[in-house]
Structure formats: C-alpha cells, structure tokens
Amino acid sequence: MRLQPYLLSALVALLLIVTSCASSGQSASAQLSDSQFETKVLEIIRKNPQVILDSVQSYQRAQAQQEEQLRDKVLSQIRQEPRLLLRNSPVTGSASQKIIMAEFSDFECPYCAKAHAVVKEFMARNQNDVTLVYKHFPLTEIHAQAEPAALASWAAMQQGKFWEYHDALFEQQSKLGEEFYLEQAKTLNLDVDRFNRDRKSAEAKAAIKKDFELGKSLGVRGTPSFVVNGVFFSGAPNVKDLEDLVAQIKAGK
Length: 253
Prior knowledge:
Pfam families: DSBA. Residues 1-22 form the signal peptide. Residues 42-251 form the Thioredoxin domain. By secondary structure, this protein is an alpha+beta fold. It folds into two domains: 5-20 and 30-73, no CATH class; 81-250, Glutaredoxin (3-Layer(aba) Sandwich), CATH 3.40.30. Helix content is 58%, strand content 10%. The protein is globular and about 65 Å long.
C-alpha cells in the first residue's frame, strides 16, 4: 500500500524523534545511528518515490501561490500610489511624477546595458511625462561586480552624481572593477574619501538589499525588469513599446 504524504511525514518525524532522544528506560545504544537513520529514510524514498515527488510539487505550488499573492498585493498598492516606488531612490525625468517607471537592473548584466541605451533614448523623448526611478537588483550569483558597482553608484548618489555614474557603469561595462570605480569618482569630482566610506557603509548595503527585496516581492527573477504605474514586464524593451504603454496609461486604459 502506498503511503500517503501525511503518513510519510509522520514516519520521518518519528525517526527524527527516535534519533534525538531515548526514553528513560533506553540506553544511548538503542537509538538509531546516523547511518541507520539515513538507511531508513532512503528505504522510504525508494519505496514511495511518487509521494516524495507529490510533496515537493505541492510545496512548490504553495510557494508559487504565496509569491503571486504578494506580487498582486504590492502591484495593487503601486497602481493606487505609484510614488511608493520613489522612496530614497534616484529619480530623473518629469517632476509631476504622474507616470513612474521603475527599472530593476544589474550594472554587470549585458541585457541591462542594452536596455540602458533604450531607456536613455526613451527618457530623452518623454522626460516631461515620465519619471524614471532606478532600483538595484544585483545578480550576485552570476555577476561578481554587480554588487560592488551598485554600492559605488549609491555612494555617487550621496554626492548628487548618481545618473552620471550610472551612465558610465553601463556604457563602459567591460571596465567594471575597483580601479574603474575610483577613476569615475575622480572624473566626476567626487570627494573620494567620502565616496569610499559611503560605498562600504552599512547604509549602502541596506539600501541595495531593500531594492532587491522589493524586486523579489514584485516577481523580479531576472534583469532588466520594469514596473510602470503598476504594470510589470521584464526583458529589454524598445522605445515604441514603452511609448505605447505610456499612451495607454494616459488614456486611462
């Protein structure tokens, strides 16, 4: 007879209890050894592979549902009040802040560098209508310079030079590294001592982490990703698609 998931869980729990404590009448030798425990668990898995698969799939579905619910909740809040995305983040473009485009990006991501050129052209044409806000989403597992670059740009923001530094990072992406970060700080006439203190500070790391967590709550899985007045999409856009979306928002669609 195939074990039901709850029965399998109970059995594994029982094995855990047996290995962690013995009754007052038992000696330590009566407990299962690590190898015995492993053998029994493997035996359960071999005899009930579908139960394990069902349990994993059930967990994954529950996790996906929770993530979707959180994403819908956050997007709903942003649709009602787009300015929520502006908090403590670098912004450029329209001062009216009626249409807000948040870009979740990684300075070492090649697709983000391509998107940067598109967004820059789009903003040049629509700066009176759209407010652009940059959100850090460094993919540290695959991009070694993503976080150091983000921290450096945050430090530049403290001296009012985020967008100039941001442009340099994307437009000279192949140069990312310590030497380049310092070189750009000097090129932009930043106070280098302050720049170094700021990028190594706990505040800088907390700011990057906050952006990253916001991105995760919105369902960001890769870069670049965008949110425009509560409309989420990912991948490098083109200028026409962005302008069409802005036109729809203006029309109240």
